[in-house]
Structures are given as structure tokens and as C-alpha cells.
């Protein structure tokens, strides 16, 4: 379980308290277009990319004219109404500082666009601690497909067996499993330990993970 040299980090719900805001932005964008949306249903899909969420929640493809309008407006609403009020999850910066001090390479795995990624990392207060990140231009299929993990592994320059992921959704767990990467789960994104089945361990949030750092594979890294 030792030999970890790189950590792949999910951001929404893991480093930033943003899952509720993403769901609300989808509902608000859909309402503007006269489309009914169930907040609870959409909230359970946050963690997938829009390429998977939009067809499941709304019944049309992201690539359709309706899907493109919805996705574009959702992004605008999220950035304008919600992003400025978001907070990091407890212990985010402290955990990343500890991992950096231990010589671990930190790569964010997201299918967000480059501009959105910068805003998310700034609100999480960790933009200066991240070596690299995936964006929508790096992947064809979003989580739970493993494309984003494969892209993050390439950016980290490490094989799966030397890499650990930290994520908050069942979609993270499935993507990590399919990429052959071990994963630690956090509950701060709204999923229970049972729903994160398959993770090596599950903690409340980054602060809780940091408190137990010595008993995780992170402590046996470089």
C-alpha cells in the first residue's frame, strides 16, 4: 500500500462545497428554458459530466441545440450566482500543503473548462498548490468513464499503482476502479460510506483525512 508518488484530486464536493450549487444552477437554467427539473434527482447526478447528466435528467443530448443552450446557461448561472459564495471543504488547503510537503505530485481531475477550473481552484484556495489538471479538452467521456483518470495519470507521469485518488462520489470510485487507481472517499460531497463502496477508506472531509493521514497510503509515499 506504500509507494504513492502522485495524488489525483476531484474538486467539486471534495475540495470545494459546490455540489449543491451545480444542481441549483442546472435547475435554474432549465426553468429559464421552460424545462421541468427535479433538484433531488439532479443533485444525485452531480459528479458526472454534462454529457451524461443532461440526457439522463432532461431527455435530450448535450450535443443537441437544447442541450447546448442548457449547458451554456447553466455555466453562466453557476459562475455569476453561485461560484462567488462557495467555500473550501474543511481542511482542504492544510491537506494539500501536507501532501506537497511530502513530495507528492498533485493533479486535479475534472472535465470542467479551463476558465471554470481556475475559478473553482481559486474559491477552494489551492490554485497555487496544484501542479497540473485535466480539463474538458483532455477527455471524450466524463466520469464514471475513466477518461479523466487516464488523462490525469498522463499529466502526473506516474502509473496507476503509484497513484491515489481522493473523491466524493460513486462516479469517482467507479472511474478510479476502471483506471486501476486506488481511491480514498470523503463524505463532504453528500454521499454515504455505503455509497462510496470500493474506496480504500472513507472520511468526513479533507480535515478528517488529514487527522488520520498517518494510517493512509499517503504516509508511505515518497
Question: What does this molecule look like?
Answer:
By secondary structure, the chain is an alpha/beta fold. The protein folds into two domains: 146 residues, HAD superfamily/HAD-like (Rossmann fold), CATH 3.40.50; 66 residues, DNA polymerase, domain 1 (Orthogonal Bundle), CATH 1.10.150. Helix content is 42%, strand content 10%. Strands 3-2-1-4-5-6 form a six-stranded parallel β-sheet, with helices on both faces. Helix 8 links the parallel strand 4 and strand 5. The longest helix has 18 residues. The protein is globular and about 55 Å long. The two termini are 12 Å apart. The mean pLDDT is 94.
From the N-terminal CA to the C-terminal CA, the straight-line distance is 12 Å
Backbone structural class:
alpha/beta
Kindly give the count of domains.
Answer: 2
Query: Architecture of the largest domain in CATH?
Result: 3-Layer(aba) Sandwich
> Strand fraction band?
5-15%
Largest beta sheet: strand ordering = 3-2-1-4-5-6
Work out the helicity level. 40-55%
Give the overall pLDDT as a whole number.
94
Low-confidence stretches: none
Total strand count, please?
6
CATH topology of the largest domain, by name, is Rossmann fold
Whole-angstrom Rg: 17 Å
State the CATH superfamily name of the largest domain: HAD superfamily/HAD-like
Query: Mind telling me the CATH class of the largest domain?
Result: Alpha Beta
- Strand-and-helix sequence, N→C? EHHHHHEHEHEHEEH
Report on the biggest sheet: 6 strands, parallel
Can you tell me the overall shape? globular
Total helical segments = 9
Amino acid at each position: 500500500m506504500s509507494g504513492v508518488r502522485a495524488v489525483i484530486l476531484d474538486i467539486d464536493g471534495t475540495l470545494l462545497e459546490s455540489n449543491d450549487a451545480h444542481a441549483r444552477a442546472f435547475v435554474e437554467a432549465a426553468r429559464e428554458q421552460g424545462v421541468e427539473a427535479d433538484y433531488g434527482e439532479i443533485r444525485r447526478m452531480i459528479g458526472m459530466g454534462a454529457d451524461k447528466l443532461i440526457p439522463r435528467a432532461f431527455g435530450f443530448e448535450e450535443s443537441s441545440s437544447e442541450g447546448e443552450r442548457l449547458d451554456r446557461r447553466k455555466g453562466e448561472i453557476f459562475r455569476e450566482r453561485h461560484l462567488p459564495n462557495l467555500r473550501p471543504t474543511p481542511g482542504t488547503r492544510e491537506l494539500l500543503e501536507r501532501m506537497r510537503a511530502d513530495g507528492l505530485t498533485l493533479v486535479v481531475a475534472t472535465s470542467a473548462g479551463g476558465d471554470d477550473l481556475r475559478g473553482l481552484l481559486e474559491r477552494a484556495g489551492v490554485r497555487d498548490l496544484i501542479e497540473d489538471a485535466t480539463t474538458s479538452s483532455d477527455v471524450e467521456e466524463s466520469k464514471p468513464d475513466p477518461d479523466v483518470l487516464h488523462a490525469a495519470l498522463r499529466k502526473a507521469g506516474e502509473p496507476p499503482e503509484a497513484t491515489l485518488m481522493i473523491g466524493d462520489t460513486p462516479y469517482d470510485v467507479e472511474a478510479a476502479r476502471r483506471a486501476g487507481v486506488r481511491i480514498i472517499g470523503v463524505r463532504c460531497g453528500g454521499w454515504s460510506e455505503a455509497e462510496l463502496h470500493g474506496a480504500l477508506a472513507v472520511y468526513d472531509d479533507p480535515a478528517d483525512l488529514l487527522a488520520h493521514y498517518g494510517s493512509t497510503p499517503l504516509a508511505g509515499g515518497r
